[in-house]
Design goal:
The protein is α+β, with helices and mostly antiparallel strands. It has 15 helices and 13 strands. The protein folds into 3 domains: 165 residues, Alpha-Beta Plaits (2-Layer Sandwich); 50 residues, DNA polymerase, domain 1, CATH 1.10.150; 145 residues, DNA polymerase, Y-family, little finger domain (Dna Ligase, domain 1). Helix content is 43%, strand content 22%. It is globular and about 65 Å long. The chain binds magnesium ion.
Amino acid sequence: MTTRTPMFPDRAILHIDMDAFYASVEVLDDPSLKGKPVMVGGTPEGRGVVAAASYEAREYGVHSAMSAARAIKLCPEGIFLRGRMDRYSEISGQVFAIFGDYTPLVEPLSIDEAFLDVTGCRRLFGSAEKVGRAIKGRILEEIGLVASVGLAANKFLAKLASDLEKPDGFTIILPDQARPLLASLPIGKLWGVGKVAEKQMHQFGIRKVEDLLAVPRDLVVGQFGDHAAHLLELAVGYDERPVIPVHEAKSIGNETTFREDISEAGHLQDILDQLAAKVARRLRSHGFMARTVTLKARYPDFTTHTRSETLLSPSDSSVEFRDAARRLLSDKLGRRARPLRLIGVTASNLVHEGEGQAQLFPDPDRERDRKLDSIMDRVHGKFGPMLKRGGHRE
Ligand SMILES: [Mg+2]
């Protein structure tokens, strides 16, 4: 938005996002692909989807998550490549190593994007803008790839900024620029407004962020529940969420203490299923996957037992967590129906989504589960408060 040296009295957050990452790595390794429409993902004959498309391919209307068959129709001369996750992970490691030279406060969002809290390094490295430009420059010089950078006083605005002038963008949103910029933004650009919520907003005549702000607060809260307060804060560019480095998040868990001890296996399993789904949802919302699932069970005399299972590969799937938790519960309880006063599910051994064995071509079952999870995440984002069931407290 501007190039003058910004002042960020409170926090300075960078959002750095590699441009067309998988496709760009392919071009880097095979320069003959430069300037050509390159797509990485499933084969056009198969049922695969496009995982990444070069900007040349995007000019044909191709975008990620589109079916490969449709992409090839739009762009018949396009070059389709199977992905090489190992190579992408390797380059990702190099990019994150550069981030780490500037601040320990790096929160990865995926294999190719991260938030960096550079508030503390402004003194050491100069202004936050200088730090951002230095990182962008080093990614180009040392790795040969292009990143887009957003700089702002919080995560929401920084992420918005990095997207504004993509590709090869460097965009600053100063605190006093946030409100006017947000006002004319489509409502779907607010975090947490998914497709379903966006449609509902449209039905209320809310198309831009300023439309939302024009609605009396009570009505917004009545319509969008718990989520409303956060939406209204984002709408004015306010976002207090901290940058959380991945190594600090060691586990994510939820537990429930019952109003009365429960011994009925079906009832326990019901509650456990909900806890497992909730933990998986929280992992997904933070962009984590977990290798280990742990069940915690507390008996009426307060003795507490835990039992863990290591998954075959890191997962954030509600179904996989549910199944693991059920296995642990039936191992734990065996045939005896001893009453419990608390159960909990924890996911640990976290990796970031995209690290470890990232699956570019997931098996159909897993893919179906993922689709279901993402639908449930959207439904939960909108109707979460209504989905809570009685019978236990958290
Ligand atoms: Mg990217």
